[in-house]
Amino acid sequence: GVDDVPAATTSTGRVLLCEREDTAARAAGADPQVLAAVRVAGHAIVDGEFDPVLAGAAAPVRGFHGGIVAALTVSGPAERLRPHLPAHAAATASAASALSAALGASAPRAR
Asked: How far apart are the first and last CA of the chain?
């Protein structure tokens, strides 16, 4: 079921975990280097990490305080998403930024 999906294997989970301290990230099963890459890119992409037939991209939605309050995600069959996954990630990040702005987001909090 969904309850046993390791968050660190999903694009949504990686976005929601990306601002955690390294110790907390490891406790959640995440690789701090992967999460650092998510912070730099502004989005997460997964392609078969959890399930070989699924791919997805997610980006952070920030609240007025600058912290992550949600993740905007697109996911589906890897066969269909894979050829355009970078473009889907960019579109997701753009939409998440627009939603963040609508929520009155400030700059991301310093880690």
From this structure: 33
